[in-house]
């Protein structure tokens, strides 16, 4: 299965881009190709060093990344000093730190054994670097925006593809070897003699003690590898060679080799599998529910008619009394009773609506091909901007819901909606960042970026949310179809599976099942820094998750009301949100099976980020479940006659 089968929009984009005359007006920002004349300078920028999973056991040994110019690495610096390359907000947040480098690449000009600089490694740097080699760190370079990778063969499909980075060093049984020589192989596509484009970059790093070019100009090949001594100083010479190779790959398809799907058949298979199960279950649930409901409603309304028409018919009245003793109609005077903590619930629901719309739009943008992989971090940037702008929806929903609950602390509602959930997220993020600062990791978000985020939040998101709340409070409340009794009904004891915890466990697993397959790929793209681009899958999964979440929560609420328990508000929110518990548990399993994070901070970071994501997921799914149930309850009580 080719990449193109997977994302039609990318294929479409590729077709558009492949016709230069037609398409010159259509390039999306940041995706326009750069052409270089022969001998023209091609930029090589360096990004942070990231840990990758080991080749042998697929385990990840660290999740902390480091700046390329971290002093302990002793990489050569450009003169006068390295500069930051401008990046998008999302790119910075997701950890990119792109800087200029001293490598000089001229289009089409081969270089052999070019010496960059000489450095001395002291003991502590040697120790630091050896540990990073043991943790399988890899270097991430960008040549003309394209990552410099290594050629890897997929054992299952026997296809070759490029990894996103290349190894800092290697280790055999005896020692760690630092790679101090790079063979840079660049593929270029010749459009015309004066226009060449970079379409592929491979780096073959190697470790060599003897760096003097021999007579063949081959840079000490075959010599012993370099080991950094942790007992004394080690001199290291950094060298590189550049080889330009003409290629037939068109610029528009240059990313294909990077976006490799490990065994797409399994991916498709498991996705379709879970989709069928989910759809089948949902349809069954909904059809049974609909039939039962129809019967219920018909019965209730028939009984009502008998009641009114046949005043003297005692037999009918008795039958009526017997019949009415069961079912969800009994709680009609209580279902719309204000839930406990209406303020908290409405704030959650406002934020949930905001997240819901944001996620939908982000995936849709990605699906339409607006977020190309060469636009680094565009996904994160779009998500943040959308979340900010959608503050209006959050405020509106929260206010409208709160008003419908009959809440009177409207000032608190307006203030808490844009502050509470983002505040929790930001505070957690900030604390986790402190850990990264302490580790001198480049993953730490710079202070200025933090300020920018807080600025955007307070200057755009909060006012928009206030505006939304204002509009929401001016709208009429959503009125329940039945009157609420003065005195609350007694709730009979419920059966085991209707108790809060069992029902949460039962209901939560289905929405989780819908996204389970995709979650695995998302996690490996987050932690193994792989490019994620399967937005078609993601879109499908998001849809499935929404449907399942709504359907099972509605079913649970129906059972709850049948058991004469009318506290459905929080129950619907919590049971649907329980799928976040599964997401978190899944992250923990992933942690045990795929990661070997030595040290406390790595584990704290991993758990912290997983908890953060699960929390947002909790609010998202909880809100989906709540609104579906609310609609359902409004509908069923609106369709029976209450005297
Ligand atoms: C540069 O090196 C590559 C790979 O060895 C070779 O195919 C190409 O012809 C060389 N180019 C020049 C201009 O020598």
TrEMBL record:
InterPro entries named in the record: EMP70
A matching Pfam family: EMP70
TM region(s), chain numbering: 268-290, 343-370, 382-402, 414-438, 450-473, 504-528, 534-561, 573-592, 604-633
A biological process from GO: vacuolar transport
Predominant localisation class: membrane
Membrane topology note: Multi-pass membrane protein
Keywords: Membrane, Signal, Transmembrane, Transmembrane helix
Signal peptide: 1-25
Family membership noted in the UniProt record: Belongs to the nonaspanin (TM9SF) (TC 9.A.2) family.
Name by which UniProt lists this protein: Transmembrane 9 superfamily member
Organism whose genome encodes this protein: Coleophoma cylindrospora
Organism ancestry: Eukaryota, Fungi, Dikarya, Ascomycota, Pezizomycotina
């Amino acid at each position: 299965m080719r990449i193109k089968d997977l994302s039609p929009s990318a294929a479409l984009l590729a077709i558009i881009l492949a016709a230069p005359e037609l398409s010159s007006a259509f390039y999306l920002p940041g995706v326009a190709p750069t052409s270089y004349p022969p001998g023209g300078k091609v930029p090589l920028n360096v990004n942070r060093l990231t840990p990758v999973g080991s080749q042998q056991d697929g385990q990840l040994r660290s999740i902390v990344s480091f700046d390329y110019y971290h002093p302990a690495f002793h990489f050569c610096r450009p003169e006068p000093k390295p500069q930051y390359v401008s990046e998008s907000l999302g790119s910075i947040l997701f950890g990119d730190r792109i800087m200029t480098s001293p490598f000089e690449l001229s289009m089409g000009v081969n270089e052999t054994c070019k010496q960059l600089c000489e450095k001395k490694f002291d003991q502590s740097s040697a120790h630091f670097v050896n540990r990073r080699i043991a943790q399988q760190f890899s270097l991430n370079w960008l040549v003309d925006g394209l990552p410099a990778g290594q050629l890897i063969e997929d054992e299952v499909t026997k296809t070759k593809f490029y990894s996103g980075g290349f190894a800092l060093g290697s280790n055999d049984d005896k020692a760690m070897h630092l790679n101090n020589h790079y063979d840079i192989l660049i593929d270029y596509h010749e459009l015309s003699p004066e226009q060449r484009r970079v379409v592929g970059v491979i780096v073959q790093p190697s470790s060599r003690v003897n760096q003097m070019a021999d007579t063949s100009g081959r840079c000490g090949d075959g010599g012993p590898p370099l080991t950094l001594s942790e007992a004394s100083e080690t001199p290291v010479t950094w060298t590189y060679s550049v080889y330009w190779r003409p290629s037939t790959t068109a610029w528009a398809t240059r990313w294909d080799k990077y976006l490799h799907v490990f065994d797409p058949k399994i991916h498709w298979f498991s996705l379709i599998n879970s989709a069928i199960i989910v759809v089948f279950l949902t349809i069954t649930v909904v059809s049974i529910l609909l039939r039962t409901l129809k019967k219920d409603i018909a019965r209730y309304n028939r009984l009502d008619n008998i009641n009114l028409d046949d005043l003297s018919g005692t037999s009918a009245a008795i039958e009526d009394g017997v019949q009415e003793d069961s079912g969800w109609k009994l709680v009609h005077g209580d279902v719309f009773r204000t839930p406990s903590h209406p303020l908290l619930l409405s704030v959650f629901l406002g934020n949930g609506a905001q997240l819901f719309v944001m996620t939908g739009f982000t995936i849709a943008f990605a699906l339409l091909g607006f977020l190309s992989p060469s636009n680094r971090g565009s996904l994160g940037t779009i998500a943040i901007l959308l979340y900010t702008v959608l503050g209006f929806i959050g405020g509106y929903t929260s206010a409208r819901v709160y008003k419908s609950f009959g809440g009177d602390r409207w000032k608190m509602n307006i203030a808490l909606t844009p502050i509470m959930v983002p505040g929790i997220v930001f505070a957690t993020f900030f604390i986790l960042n402190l850990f990264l600062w302490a580790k001198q990791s480049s993953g730490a978000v710079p202070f200025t970026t933090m300020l920018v985020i807080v600025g955007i939040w307070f200057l755009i998101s909060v006012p928009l949310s206030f505006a939304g709340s204002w509009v929401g409070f001016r709208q009429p409340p959503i009125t329940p179809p039945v009157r609420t009794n003065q005195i609350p009904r007694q709730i009979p004891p419920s059966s085991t599976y209707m108790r809060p915890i069992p029902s949460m466990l039962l209901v939560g697993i289905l929405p989780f099942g819908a996204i389970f397959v995709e979650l695995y790929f998302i996690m490996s793209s987050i932690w193994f820094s792989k490019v994620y681009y399967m937005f078609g899958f993601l879109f499908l999964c998001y849809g499935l998750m929404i449907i399942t979440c709504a359907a099972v929560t509605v079913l649970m609420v129906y059972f709850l009301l049948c058991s004469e328990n009318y506290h459905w508000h929080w129950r619907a929110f919590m049971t649907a949100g329980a799928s976040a518990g599964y997401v978190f548990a899944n992250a923990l399993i992933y942690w045990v099976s795929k990661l070997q994070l030595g040290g406390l901070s790595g584990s704290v970071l991993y758990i912290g980020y997983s908890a953060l994501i699960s929390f947002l997921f909790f609010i998202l799914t909880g809100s989906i479940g709540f609104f579906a149930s609310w609609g359902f309850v409004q509908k069923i009580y609106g369709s029976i006659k209450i005297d």
